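Limitations

Structures in this collection are predictions, not experimental determinations, and the ligand pose is part of the prediction. Treat each record accordingly. The example that follows, with flavin-adenine dinucleotide as the small molecule, is included so readers can see exactly what is and is not provided: the inputs are given verbatim, and the output is the predicted complex.
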Amino acid sequence: MGKDIYETLIKGYTEKQWGRQCAELPAFIIKRLPVRFTFDNNYFKDRYQGVPVGGYNKLSAALLKDIETKTSCDFFADRPYWENLSDKIVYTGEIDRYYDYKFGKLEYRSLRWETEILDCANYQGSALVNYTEAAVPYTRIIEYKHFEFGAQPQTVISREYPAEWREGAEPFYPINDAKNTALYNKYAELARKEKRVIFGGRLAEYKYYDMDRVIERALENVKCQITK
Ligand SMILES: Cc1cc2nc3c(=O)[nH]c(=O)nc-3n(C[C@H](O)[C@H](O)[C@H](O)COP(=O)(O)OP(=O)(O)OC[C@H]3O[C@@H](n4cnc5c(N)ncnc54)[C@H](O)[C@@H]3O)c2cc1C
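Predicted complex:
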């Protein structure tokens, strides 16, 4: 890629995002970045890109229509109750917590946001602008209205700051280095033997997924269950 591009776009951003020197990170993190020699500045190369009109909440609400749904309940606050509720369980929480951390705790990278309402119709002209330099403490600014071409007189922006993950905080990104991968593999071995529980998603599989991939995985899982 060349040293100039690496130092301008990659090094500072990656090191603040992960809180580690690039040299300590696994190579596949860098392989996730697309490199192309065209003027296409999209991050993804998919032919069709976007978010559902009205957001993902609308999509999940429609999928769950007429299905009894409870939210804001911690599975571990009353584990026997949830376990006795059905024959199958789809578990999308942290896999190490499911097994009571018996082999040790997996590590994550976390995030925090500072959100502001600004008295202007447009702040940055785009839903997302990345700040790649190490000297700026946040990695990006999100301006939500541009996801849906909003015409409101004000705008809402969030500055996104990478953060160390501590127990009790929301785990965002798995740290798939050698140590955590070895630990995850031990839990995955137990998970494979479970008859009633389907482990799915970024926390249960300790793997970064984009939305399209996680939906695809969920559909594959369903097919797999039907044909079992
Ligand atoms: C900051 C950030 C930005 C992202 N940007 C993009 C993007 O631009 N494009 C893209 O395609 N993807 C993006 N993603 C990825 C996308 O968010 C994930 O692919 C998707 O949310 C993964 O779905 P999931 O079901 O695996 O996990 P989640 O969406 O995290 O769902 C897991 C669910 O399990 C629940 N749960 C966990 N533990 C418990 C418990 N103990 N009891 C009860 N419930 C529990 C959680 O509350 C949550 O609802 C981004 C992710 C992050 C973190």
